[in-house]
Write a structure and sequence with these properties.
4 domains; flat; homodimer; Rossmann fold; 25 helices; Dna Ligase, domain 1; 6-stranded antiparallel sheet; alpha/beta; 38% helix
Chain lengths: 713, 713
C-alpha cells in the first residue's frame, strides 16, 4: 500500500505558501525563537503565523493564541512546544487541514517507553489523516530557493546557503546540520535540507524520494543511521536512479561499536552493515566513508554532471613535482584506481615538450611548467588524447595562488575543456574561492587533499560504472507459495528434497528402510556411496556415528548398513529413525558454503563463501539481496578473495563456476518464494566439481520462521 | 666507518654565523634571489655575502665576485648557479673551509647520465674533504630560531614559521616545502627544515639524525621516498629513539605505481614497501599515510609530550550528539581502536548527571551539555576516572564557536586537566585559532576531522605501545662465518644439513647409497618413512617420480627403493644420483612456509606465512628484518590473519607455537651469519605439530648470492 506513496506530500516542507510556528518565542536562543528569526532574517516571502498562548506580538509579528485563530490554514506548521503539548498541536493541525508538520521538540522515543507511546500516537495522526509529520526530535527542513526555514540549526546562524542543486537529507539532526554548514564553507549550492529525527511518519526513504522528484535537485547527499522500512528505501533509491540523480550515502554504524550506538540512538534494529552495503550497492547508491567525502563527492557530481562520468577506473596523474606524483600514485592505488603507463606516442609527445619530464604515469612535468606557459596546455592535450586512461588528475599545491601561474593554468584548462569537452579532469589543488568558482564553472571539480581527490575520483568512477551496468533486474515480487510442509524442516533429506525440486542440484540419493532396500538402491546408484542416518531427532549425524563415507561394494554396503544402525542405536537410543540415506558419493572439487538469512528490514539475503576457514576465520563471504540472477551470482563468486581457488590457481583445474552460480540463483529464488515460512537455509558444503562436471549440495538445513512471523499477512 | 658519523657536521646548516650565496640575484623570482630576500626580510642576524660575477651590490648588500674575496670563510654556502658552475663553486668552498654547502641548482642525476657523473664528482668533494653538501636539486634548509634560510621555498613567501619544537625533513623538496606551509597554517611551531634532494652527500638518515641531536627539536616529521643506506637510516632512527623524540614518517611509493614513480624520480632502487614498513616498525618510527596525518600526529605529539602517551588502545568517546557518537565509533574502530563499555559505576554516575544520556561508550551527553554548564565537567571527570579506557576523545562541532559554550568547555577541560593531569584527551573539534592555542597550552591536541582525530589518536597509541616495549634487541652485528661450501647449495639434503646444524629442526633422515643401507636406515628410524631422490641435477623431485611417501614396512622399503631409482633413471637418465634420502615421515600438523630474502638496502629479512594458498593467494605473510628473537617471531606468527589455524580454531588442537617461533629465530640468525654467501632461503613446508610435539622443516632450498656480491669486502 505504501509502495506508491514514498515521499508523498512533502513539497509543503520546502515551498509552503504559509508557515505557522507553535511555541513561537521572542527568545532567539529557544527552538521556538530561532525559526521565526531565520524566516524574517533571510526573507521568506510567504505568510508567517507565530502561535503563542499569550498572543500579542512575537518578534514584531502578530501572534495567535491558537491555530484556530489564524486567518487561513497554514501549509506548514513548525511545532516547538514541550512534549506534552505536541499531540494536541498535531491534532489541531490535522483538523485545520495543514499539509505538513515539523516537530522540532525532543522528549519522545529517545526518552524511553512513555515517550515512545506518545510518539506513536502522534504518528497515528499522520497515518489516519494523510497529513505528513517530520520528527519529532529533529532539525527539520529547509527549502533554500523559497527560503522556507523550519529548523533551529546553528548552520544558519552565520549565513543562508546559496541556492544550488545539492540536496541534503539526514536522520541525525546534528549530522544533517553539520553537513549543511560544511557545504556552505565548501561553496556548494543547496536545494533542500531535511532531517527526519525519530521518524514517527516521514522517514529517510521519504526524504530521499522528496529530493528524487524535486526538479531543483541534481545530487542527493544522505546521512543514514538505520532503516525502518527496507521496501520503501529501495523504492526511494529506484526513484533517484530513474531520475538520473546520484544518491551519495554516508551510512554510519559500520563498526560493531558504531552499530550498537546507532541502535541505542535511533531505537531501531541494529542492521548488519554488510546487508546495508549490499542493499545500497544494489540500489545504485554511491557509498562514502565520511562527512568530508560526502561533501567532496557531492561537489564533484554537481560539477561534473552525468555525461562526463567515466565507466573505467584508469587515471592519468599530472604534476609539476615528482614527490607529489608518487604521493598521488599511492593514494590513487589505495582507492582502487589503476595508473596504466601512457601510450608510447603520448610519452614521446610529452618528452618532445619537456625533455626531462617523467612521461609514463604519474607524469612529472617538472618545474618547466612554471617557466614555460605553453607546457601545461600541450601536456594536458597529449594526455587527454590518450585513451589508455579514463580520467585525469591535475595536481598543484600552489599554482592557483600565484597570479602569473594561475593565469597559465586557467588558460590551459580552458583550452583542454574546449578540445576535450567530455574528458573528466579532477583538480587536486588549493585555490582561492574566486578561482574555484571559475574552475567549477568549466566543469572541473576542485579537491584540496591528495587522498580526498583520489577517493572522490574513485567514487565518481564507481558511480559511472554502476550507471553503465544499469539498474539490476528489478527484485522479483515475493510470490509466496503455499507454506512448506513442516516435514521439510525435519531432516537433511527432506530439506534437500524440497531444494532439489527448486532446482538446487543434489547427489543421486534415496532413503531406504531396510538392508534389502539399501542393496537395491546400491545397484541403481553407482559406487562409491555414502550412508547417512535419517532422523528428526539427530541434528549432528556424525557425532552419533550416523555417517559412513566410501562404500565401495555391495558386500560392504550390507555390512556398513548394519553397523551404522547399530552405532546410532547405541549412541542415540531415543532417536526416531526414519531411514537411511544412500547417496552417490561426490569426490574432489572445491567446497563452498551457501546460505540465506532473512534480514528483518530488507528480507532474504543470499550468502556464499569458500568452506572451512575462509568463511569462518577470514570472513571472506559475499552477500547480496535475494533473488540474484546468474550474472550477479557469478559476480558474488568473483568478489571472494579466495576466488582464485575456483579459477585454476596453483595448477588446479578450473571449477564449474556456472553450476555454482546456478545453484546460488536457485537457492536465492527459493528463499524469496518461501520468505514467510523459512528463516534461514544452510548448504554446507556445496561441492563444485571441475568445469562441466557440476556442483552438488551435500548437506542442507532449513530453519523455519518463528510462528509469529508466519502468521503475518 | 660511516657508522658513527650519521648526521655529523650539520649544525652549520641551521645556525651558521655567516652565509654566502653563489648566484645571488636582484631578481627575487630567481632561486639565487629568493634566499637573499628571505634572509633580510626575516632578520637573519649573521653576515650575508652575496657572490655574483658582477660584484657591486645585490639587493642592497655588498656583493663579491669570488668566494676568495670574502673577508672571512662563511660557515654556510648556498649554491644557486647553473649546473655547469656548481662543481667549481663547491671546490672553492672546500678550499676556503666552508662547513656546509646547500646546492639549490637542479640539472644533475634527474637529467640523465651526464648529470649523474657531475653529481658524483660533487659528492666526491664532500667525501674527500669532510665538508657537508646538501642537494643538489633540493629545497635546502631552514633554521627557524636563528632565521637561517637556505631555501627558495614558496612556503616562506607569506610569513616565516613560528619557532617551535617540530622539525621537518624530506627528500622531495616540494613535499618538504608543502609540509612547512601546512605546518604554518596549522599553527605548528617549527625548529628546523631540511630537504635532501638528490643526496650527493647528506641523505635522509643524516637529516633525521641532525634533528635527533638538536636540543630545540622534540618531534621529527619525515617525508621519505627511498633509502640509499639502510644501516645509516637504522642508526638515525636509533638516535631519535634514544633521544626520546618521536619520528613520524610519511613514506611515499607504497603502491606499485608509486614505487615505480619514486624509483624513476629519485634514481634509487625501488624498495619493497613491506621491507620499509618492517624496518620503520623495528626502528620505532610512527608511520602515517598522508601529509595531513603527518601534521596532525606531529601536532598531537608536540602538544601531548611523552608522559601522557597511553600504551593501550581503548578509547572512550564523548559527544553531545548521538549521530556524531556513531560516526566516531565507526572511525575509531576503523583505526583499530577499541571502545569498551564503561564500567557500571561510571555509567550510573553519568546517568545520575544526565538521566537520558547514552552512558555506555560512545557517551552521548545529549543537548543537556548546552543548557547545564556543570554537566560536561562532571561527565568528563566520571569517564577520566574509569580505567577501562586508555584515552578520551571529546567531540564538538560548534561549541568552541559559541562564546557561552566555549567558556563552559574551556572551564571543564581546565578542571579535568587539573584533576587528571596524565590523562590523554584528544579534542575532535573546530575552534578559532585563539581557543586552539588555549587548548594546546593545556596539553589537549585539537583535530578537526573525525577520521583524522581517530587516526591521530591511533598513531599516538601505537607510538606509546612501541615505546613501552622499548627498543628491539639491537640487531646483532653480522658475524660472517666462513662462506658456506658450494655443496650446501646443491641438494635438499645438503641444505637441510647446514640448517640443522644452525638449529633448524629437521626430521630424522639419512642418505643411503644402496638398498641394504636403506634397510639398515629403516631399522634405525621408525616407520612410516619417506624416500626422496638426492641429485644436484633434479630440482623438482616429484616431477621425475623421485619421492615416495608412506613406507610402512621393511618389505615395502626394499620394493619402493628399487622402483624409485627405476622411475628416476627412466625420467631423468642424465641426472647424477648422489643417493636416496630415507626420512622419518612427519604426519599431521599445520604447514608454514618460512624463508629469508636479502634486501639490497636493508639486508636479510625473514618471512613466514601459512602454506598453500594463504601466502600465495591471500598474501598473508609477516616480514621482519633478521635476526629476530623468540618474542618477535611469535609476534610475526600472531600477526597472520590465518593465525587462528595455529591457535586451535574450529576445534583443532593448538599448534606448537614455541617450536615454530624457535625455527624462525634459528633461520633468521643463519641468514644474518651467512648474508654474504646466501641470497635466499626457502623452507616449504615447515610442519608445525600439536603443542609440545615440535616443528620440522620437510624441505629446504638455499640460493647462493651472485658471485659479484660474494667478492665484496
Amino acid at each position: 500500500m505504501q509502495a506508491v506513496e514514498v515521499g508523498r506530500g512533502l513539497d509543503a516542507l520546502f515551498k509552503p505558501r504559509s508557515i505557522a510556528i507553535f511555541g513561537a518565542s521572542d527568545d532567539v536562543s529557544k527552538i521556538g525563537g530561532r525559526p521565526l528569526q531565520f524566516l524574517q532574517k533571510y526573507g521568506y516571502a510567504g505568510c508567517i503565523y507565530p502561535i503563542n498562548r499569550k498572543a500579542g506580538r512575537v518578534q514584531s509579528l502578530t501572534a495567535y493564541a491558537n491555530l484556530a485563530d489564524l486567518p487561513e490554514a497554514p501549509e506548514l506548521a513548525v511545532v516547538a512546544v514541550p512534549p506534552a503539548g505536541v499531540l494536541e498541536a498535531v491534532q489541531a493541525c490535522a483538523q485545520r487541514g495543514v499539509k505538513a508538520v515539523v516537530i522540532l521538540s525532543a522528549g519522545f522515543s529517545e526518552m524511553g517507553e512513555e515517550g515512545s507511546r506518545l510518539q506513536m500516537q502522534i504518528g497515528d495522526v499522520a497515518r489516519a489523516t494523510g497529513m505528513r509529520i517530520v520528527g519529532p526530535n529533529c532539525l527539520g527542513a529547509v527549502g533554500v530557493p523559497d527560503r522556507s526555514i523550519a529548523t533551529f540549526s546553528v548552520a544558519l546562524e552565520g549565513a543562508f546557503p546559496d541556492t544550488g542543486t545539492v540536496g541534503i537529507v539526514s536522520q541525525s539532526g546534528n549530522l544533517g546540520s553539520f553537513t549543511l554548514r560544511l557545504a556552505g564553507e565548501r561553496g556548494l549550492g543547496i536545494s533542500r535540507m531535511l532531517t527526519t529525527g525519530n521518524e514517527c511518519d516521514v522517514d529517510i526513504a521519504d526524504a530521499v524520494a522528496s529530493l528524487a522528484v524535486d526538479p531543483g535537485t541534481s545530487v542527493i547527499l544522505c546521512c543514514m543511521e538505520t532503516c525502518r522500512d527496507g521496501a520503501k528505501l529501495r523504492q526511494a533509491m529506484a526513484l533517484a536512479r530513474e531520475a538520473g540523480k546520484p544518491l551519495v550515502v554516508l551510512k554510519v554504524g559500520v563498526s560493531e561499536a558504531g552499530s550498537e550506538a546507532a541502535a541505542s540512538h535511533t531505537g531501531a534494529l541494529a542492521c548488519s552493515d554488510a546487508v546495508f552495503d549490499a542493499v545500497l550497492r544494489e540500489g545504485g547508491a554511491v557509498r562514502v566513508p565520511s562527512i568530508e567525502q560526502l561533501l567532496e563527492v557531492g561537489h564533484a557530481l554537481s560539477v561534473v554532471g552525468p555525461a562526463r562520468l567515466p565507466t573505467g577506473h584508469r587515471v592519468a596523474v599530472l604534476t609539476a613535482s615528482g614527490g607529489f606524483g608518487v604521493l598521488l600514485a599511492d593514494a590513487a592505488s589505495a582507492q582502487g584506481l589503476a595508473l596504466p603507463k601512457l601510450r608510447a606516442e603520448t610519452q614521446q609527445r610529452i618528452l618532445s615538450i619537456v625533455p626531462f619530464a617523467a612521461p609514463s604515469n604519474p607524469v612529472d612535468m617538472t618545474a618547466q611548467v612554471s617557466s614555460r606557459p605553453e607546457v601545461l596546455a600541450q601536456v594536458l592535450d597529449a594526455v587527454a588524447r590518450d585513451d589508455s586512461c579514463d580520467a585525469l588528475i591535475l595536481q598543484s599545491a600552489s599554482a592557483f595562488h600565484v597570479p602569473r601561474l594561475r593565469d597559465v593554468y586557467l588558460g590551459a584548462l580552458a583550452q583542454v575543456r574546449k578540445d576535450h569537452p567530455s574528458r573528466l579532469i579532477v583538480l587536486c589543488a588549493r585555490a582561492p574561492q574566486d578561482v574555484r568558482v571559475q574552475l567549477t564553472a568549466m566543469g572541473f571539480p576542485v579537491v584540496e587533499g591528495i587522498d580526498a581527490a583520489c577517493a572522490t575520483l574513485s567514487a565518481l568512477m564507481r558511480h559511472g560504472a554502476g550507471r553503465a551496468i544499469g539498474a539490476s533486474s528489478p527484485t522479483a515480487a515475493a510470490i509466496e507459495c503455499a507454506p512448506l510442509a513442516p516435514e521439510a524442516f525435519t531432516t537433511e533429506a527432506s530439506a534437500k528434497g524440497v531444494l532439489a525440486e527448486a532446482g538446487l542440484p543434489v547427489p543421486l540419493e534415496v532413503i531406504v528402510g531396510s538392508r534389502d532396500e539399501a542393496l537395491a538402491a546400491g545397484r541403481r546408484l553407482s559406487f562409491p556411496l555414502v550412508l547417512k542416518i535419517v532422523s528428526p531427532d539427530i541434528p549432528h549425524k556424525t557425532e552419533v556415528g550416523g555417517v559412513f563415507v566410501g562404500v565401495r561394494s555391495e558386500a560392504q554396503l550390507a555390512e556398513e548398513y548394519d553397523s551404522l544402525l547399530a552405532r546410532v542405536a547405541q549412541n542415540a537410543p531415543q532417536a526416531r529413525i526414519t531411514g537411511v540415506l544412500v547417496a552417490q558419493m561426490v569426490q574432489g572439487g572445491v567446497e563452498l558454503i551457501l546460505g540465506t538469512t532473512k534480514d528483518p528490514v530488507f528480507g532474504p539475503m543470499v550468502m556464499v563463501g569458500l568452506g572451512g576457514i575462509f568463511a569462518e576465520i577470514l570472513k571472506d563471504v559475499a552477500l547480496q539481496p535475494a533473488p540474484v540472477d546468474e550474472a550477479q551470482a557469478t559476480a558474488m563468486l568473483r568478489s571472494l578473495k579466495a576466488f582464485p581457488l575456483l579459477d585454476g590457481a596453483r595448477g588446479r583445474p578450473k571449477a564449474d563456476l556456472q553450476a555454482a552460480a546456478q545453484a546460488i540463483v536457485a537457492l536465492s529464488r527459493f528463499a524469496v518464494r518461501h520468505a514467510q515460512s523459512v528463516a534461514e537455509i544452510d548448504i554446507n558444503p556445496l561441492v563444485v566439481l571441475d568445469q562441466g562436471r557440476g556442483a552438488y549440495a551435500l548437506d542442507a538445513l532449513l530453519v523455519p520462521a518463528p510462528p509469529a512471523e508466519k502468521a503475518k499477512p
